[in-house]
Amino acid sequence: MHVRAPAILIAARPHGETAVIARLLTEDLGLVAGYVAGGRGRRLRPVTIPGNAVDLELSARSDSQLPFARLELTASRGPWLGEPLAAAAIGWACALTATALPERQPYPALYQSLGALLEAVCNAPSARGWAPALVGYETLLLRELGYGAEGTLGERPTGDLPEILGAMDRLGTLLERYLLADRRGDVMAARQRLRDLLGRI
Fold first, then answer.
1. CA geometry: angle at 64 spanning 61 and 65, to 5°?
2. pTM of the entire structure?
3. How would you class 16 by CB atoms within 10 Å of its CB: exposed for 0-12, middle for 13-18, buried for 19 or more?
4. What is the Cα–Cα distance from 95 to 90, expressed in whole angstroms?
5. 54 pLDDT exceeds 70?
6. Would strands 19-26 and 30-36 be described as parallel, antiparallel, or unpaired?
7. Strand residues in 16-60 grouped as ranges (E)
């Protein structure tokens, strides 16, 4: 196997002394994992941040082998990780994606929607500018995985904060019940932290 594609890095777990196992979302392959040698080293540590957009090169001798991954940074989310609200939104969107999606099943709409959400978090002047996109992403994820047909999950809210928080509360129950039922602990805690921060605006 040899693949090269744009990707969004959604999780990086330490492996050995300096490597990481990275999980990445691509448009055509879906969620893939790869071994990144030196991923915790000085040169690659800024690259292996969840939310970063990268050029991914995967190579493996067989389908049963964990591929080796080479990453080249194309867009960094690092500058926004010092802002609690933006960091919470990036962390939640990546954790949800990494936890809910099966590996190697393409979801092009989710790839595009996650990329647009991360761009909005980093470029909107306030949370009111990106919070509707977050609710839209959660809704799309539920729909793509078969938990809600068009119109059954509610309308996408506007920039009105009480409406956004209400939609988040409604969707949180569905995410917990359907997508995160057996693994919700830390993931839903990240969402609750984001919800609490939005509630203080």
1. 50
2. 0.91
3. exposed
4. 9
5. yes
6. antiparallel
7. 19-26, 30-36, 53-59
Residue with tokens 């002394």: 17
Backbone angles phi, psi at 85, to 5 degrees: -70, -45
Structure tokens at 11: 């999780």
Residue with tokens 């994606």: 97
**Residue 183: pLDDT band by 50, 70, 90 thresholds?**
low
Q: Are 121 and 90 in contact (CB under 8 A)?
A: yes
Separation of alpha carbons 26 and 83, rounded Å: 27
**Per the structure block, which two tokens stand in for 157?**
């809210």
Q: What is the pLDDT of residue 148?
A: 72
Q: Which domains does the chain have, with CATH numbers?
A: 2-76 (2.40.50.140), 79-199 (no CATH)
Tokens of 141: 């994820």
Distances (CA, A) of 91 to 47, 50, 98, 166: 15, 7, 11, 21
CA 10 to CA 143: how far, in whole Å?
20
